[in-house]
Amino acid sequence: MPSHTCIVCKLKLTFVKQKNLAVSFHAFPRYPYTKQAWIEFCGTDTGVVCSKHFSDDCFIAGREENYKRRRLFGWAVPTIRLPVKINGTSILSENSPEEISSSSLSETIQQEISESVDSKETTHLSADNIILTHSATISQLKAQVQEHKSKVGTDVF
């Protein structure tokens, strides 16, 4: 029996049904390139991911389609790891691995910036430098998604 809990944010299908939320659940794809990208995002190769972790352009006919029958394009990869909020309530717990990895990413980026600054200088990192680095990282991720889309094509699950 397949899992009915999102492996990213732990949102349960029973909760979605009780609250009549516009959230769909999606199994791992069969296509090797896409599946590998999902594994890298989720940290596992089994389970389901809820629609909150996909951008609108990943859905055939967008998010406006009946959420119970929404389908993903074959190239669709989950990219949204921010805590999911339903009616103002955070679905991720404060100590969840997703939030820890998000803060770890921020620390790693900050460490990389620090290492790139000449060790003889006592330059402090500004918020602008961190934002620029995050923007560069986001641009790189978008480029990887576009590259992945071109490899997979427009196959549908």
Automatic annotation (TrEMBL):
Domain THAP-type, first and last residues per copy: 1-81
Keyword Metal-binding: yes
Keywords recorded for this protein, A-Z: DNA-binding, Metal-binding, Zinc, Zinc-finger
Domain of life (superkingdom): Eukaryota
Coiled coil (residue ranges): none
A GO term, aspect molecular function: sequence-specific DNA binding
Record protein name field: (northern house mosquito) hypothetical protein
Lineage: Eukaryota, Metazoa, Ecdysozoa, Arthropoda, Hexapoda
